[in-house]
Amino acid sequence: MRYTGKLAGGLLGFVLGFGPVGAVLGALIGHQFDAYAEQRGAGARTAHAAAVGERFFRATFRVMGFLAKADGRVSEQEIAAARAVMMQLRLTPAQVHSAIEHFTAGKRPEFDLDGELAELNRVCLGRAHLKRVFIELEIRAALAGNNLDGPVRPLLGRIAERLGVSSFEFAQIEAALRIHARGFGPQTAGDAAGDLERAYRVLGVNAADGDREITKAYRRQLSRHHPDKLKANGLPDSMIEHAKQRTQQIIEAYELIRERRGMRT
Question: Which of 19, 112, 7, 110 has the alpha carbon at shortest distance from 58?
Answer without folding.
Answer: 112
